[in-house]
């Protein structure tokens, strides 16, 4: 992330806020991790959970959320993309406020804000919505493409290198999927790990901290071998469609797919 969520929302509500030249996004993994503030990680992780409460964030974010939850959702996803579109996000947010300020009734304000949030004729709105869509697609892909292997401690661990910072979006899904079974998802590209222990909540930590807590590297086991055998057995070469396969399962993800 180039700027924090607090800076982003401050830029939306205070036109006088200006951001200088930002450092290129191509950062080393440890340097990029340092740019992601812990409070932002905690907030977005909470946002995609069932325990989310907007009062956890500042007043400016609360005001935007009350005007249009859809716009707020789009802004959060666009921010998670890590793409250099801060100016477009800020302009998009200001457009929401501008549309709503022409009305005095709360219901009318919300209708106007939602209409502006879905106005693809506006270049900034189009950029934010398209970027949010890309993040949503990758979240959906990771829900199906992550491959877990159990380690010596009975914890299920998956590794990935997603294009976007999507770990916060996966916590609730895999909490429901695994129940009380401990699990962890390691984002090797960013040096971060989303994990959950029985009875706790999914949380994100720096990878080094996770290693210290007893998350050793996974290795191939009999379940993985069984999965590869199953995949090979059901494969029908006569129906192979390489283009469709790469569309649904892009090659950049294959590194962490044992069947590939």
């Amino acid at each position: 992330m180039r700027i924090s969520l607090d800076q982003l929302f401050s830029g939306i509500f205070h036109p006088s806020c200006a951001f200088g030249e930002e450092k290129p996004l191509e950062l080393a993994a440890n340097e990029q991790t340092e740019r992601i503030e812990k409070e932002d990680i905690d907030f977005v992780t909470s946002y995609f959970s069932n325990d989310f409460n907007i009062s956890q964030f500042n007043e400016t974010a609360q005001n935007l959320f009350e005007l249009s939850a859809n716009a707020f959702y789009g802004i959060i996803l666009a921010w998670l993309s890590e793409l250099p579109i801060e100016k477009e996000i800020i302009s998009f947010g200001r457009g929401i406020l501008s549309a709503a300020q022409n009305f005095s009734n709360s219901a009318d304000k919300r209708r106007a804000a939602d209409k502006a949030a879905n106005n693809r004729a506006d270049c900034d709105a189009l950029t934010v919505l398209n970027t949010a869509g890309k993040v949503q697609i990758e979240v959906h892909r990771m829900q199906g493409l992550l491959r877990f292997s159990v380690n010596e401690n009975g914890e299920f661990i998956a590794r990935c290198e997603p294009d976007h910072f999507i770990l916060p979006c996966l916590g609730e899904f895999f909490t429901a999927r695994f129940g009380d079974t401990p699990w962890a998802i390691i984002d090797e590209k960013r040096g971060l790990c989303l994990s959950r222990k029985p009875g706790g909540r999914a949380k994100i930590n720096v990878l080094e901290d996770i290693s210290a807590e007893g998350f050793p590297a996974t290795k191939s086991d009999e379940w993985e071998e069984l999965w590869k055998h199953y995949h090979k057995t059901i494969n029908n070469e006569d129906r192979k469609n390489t283009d469709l396969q790469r569309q649904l399962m892009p090659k950049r993800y294959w590194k962490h797919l044992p069947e590939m």
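Residues 46 and 52 are 5 Å apart (CA to CA). The chain has a mean pLDDT of 81.
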